[in-house]
Amino acid sequence: SLAIGTTIGYKLFSLSSVEQLDQVHESNEIPDVYIVERLFSSSLVVVVSHAKPQQMNVYHFKKGTEICNYSYSSNILSIRLNRQRLVVCLEESIYIHNIKDMKLLKTILDTPPNTTGLCALSINHANSYLAYPGSASSGEISLYDGNTLKTACTIPAHDGPLAALTFNSTGSKLASASEKGTVIRVFSIPGGQKLYEFRRGMKRYVNISSLVFSMDSQFLCASSNTETVHVFKLEHLTDSRPEEPPTWSGYMGKMFQAATNYLPAQVSGMMNQDRAFATVRLNISGQRNICALSTIQKLPRLLVTTSDGHLYIYNLDPQDGGECVLIKKHSLLGSGKMEENKENNLQPPLPQSYAATVARQSTVPSTSTMPGYSEDGGALRGEVIPEHEFATGPVCLDDENEFPPVSI
């Protein structure tokens, strides 16, 4: 599911195939929408407009009705939601609502100045953790339990201020990056122990705008204001396959790995930083973009949406990684029909590679339906949202068919 805000309203899309982009809903009732958040694939959508930046409007878009609206003391910077909680982030406070009846459960006041509204909420409501900056000058993360409404822990993640935060689908891992953008770290939740450390690059500082896990938590994707998107694989160096032929770099890697047992933590941390498993080279630079790792038509894809209104879909080779191959470009603003047709003629440069040879176009109409909700974030199939989940209060969705999609 993809939601975009525009100067004239907002649009919702379904991404069930590579070739076709299905528009689910379009609204031109509210201009200058800068926040639009949809509750998975349900009818509930939360919208904030530049016309009224202090007001949150909650809609049932299929019925065309407003469920409720709330006003706050200052501009709304971000909104996060799962089946249990709706979180509204202002510059110096955070409001937590119960999504079943929209009642305000908790207000976290006097948070450190958070001018970008940086915060993350686990999509798994059983582990409804909230993460936000614990300091304006350092990379400290405050972890809050959205179910018990209590502070869980504080994680000293980076030296410099935070720029990006994201949970994995089960709420058991949290990834972060600082304003420098050179190092990305992954922590266990709720304990806060460091699990992985990835180096995005040493040559220049970058502004990481998007950080996201794949649904199975095997990959972590990071995009910035540069032309390169990085995908990291969450595996330890000791997991390397024994059948690999011995190389000088492999030999040195094993030496470094052994040496880390005897070195101070700071030094060993540097040696355990992994390079990117896969990359994407965008043909633009300096534009804000959002990335996602998803499974579309049973194959792993990397998706990039740019602020100029385009969606790029790449094939991701889950075994060998490397350069991802662009297979489709969509216009999200409705004026790119000719451009979209031209993109159908994209010829992958390396036809012998995995990423280039997997099906570019589905010859059989897709009959797959959205997977049912499951507590593990989607790994299991077939469970639907129980009727009683949304049976009380103003948030009453139509039917049990409105369950979370394969998340993007």
From TrEMBL:
Query: Where does it localize?
Result: Preautophagosomal structure membrane
Question: In what ranges is there compositional bias, type Polar residues?
Answer: 359-371
Q: Which GO BP terms, alphabetically?
A: protein localization to phagophore assembly site; response to stress
Entry GO CC: phagophore assembly site membrane
Q: What SMART domains does the record point to?
A: WD40
**InterPro entries named in the record:** PROPPIN, WD40/YVTN_repeat-like_dom_sf, WD40_repeat_dom_sf, WD40_rpt
* Chief place where the protein resides: membrane
The protein's topology relative to the membrane is: Peripheral membrane protein
Q: Which family does it belong to?
A: Belongs to the WD repeat PROPPIN family.
Q: Please state what the protein is called.
A: WIPI1 protein
Organism this protein belongs to: Psilopogon haemacephalus (coppersmith barbet)
